[in-house]
Amino acid sequence: MREANGDIVDSAHARALIVRREQDMKQGRSRFTNAAARKQWSGASGLVPLTYRWGITSTFLDDLATGLASR
To answer: CA 71 → CA 17, 30, 66, 67, 68, distances in Å?
Structure first.
């Protein structure tokens, strides 16, 4: 797929890879085969960068650094 030219949105090969990966990963919970899963889905597809709770972690690390500095 790396050598694909043009718009990947129109690629039947890319779509097939996505369907196969979701079915392999989620099996019976795949939105492609499970109507209940499709109904619950908000439409979000992980297009927003994950924060991994960085705000909480950053506060913790600042508190830890302050505590270590006061020793």
So the answer is: 55, 53, 9, 7, 5
Instruction: Write the secondary structure of 12-70 as one string of H (helix), E (strand) and C (coil).
Output: HHHHHHHHHHHHHHHHHHCCCCCHHHHHHCCCCCCCCCCCCCHHHHHHHHHHHHHHHHC
What is the pTM for the complete model shown?
0.51
11 within 8 A of 2, measured Cβ to Cβ: no
* pLDDT at site 54: 87
The residue whose two tokens read 């109904």 is 39
Residue 30 near residue 37 (C-beta atoms within 8 A): yes
